Amino acid sequence: MLFLDSHVEFAKRAYCSIEDDNIYTVSRDTTKGDIYGVQPIYSTTLAPNSRKDSLLVHDPDVFSGGGTVTKKR
Hints:
This protein is low in regular secondary structure. 0% of the residues lie in helices and 0% in strands. The chain is globular and about 25 Å long. The two termini are 21 Å apart. The model has no long low-confidence stretch (mean pLDDT 75).
């Protein structure tokens, strides 16, 4: 995980950020992190729900130009 202060940590579990917030879910609370949260629905405006909500984001597989990215596995 890369943090905003530029340090990197290897995490073995999803509850590894501020207040043990799950990095794969969006907080249900707009003022703090949420240990359970809800599964996010991808959109171009996907963002954490509050200052203390940690959310893992990634580049989309489909870009606005209509092309797709082929990932080698």
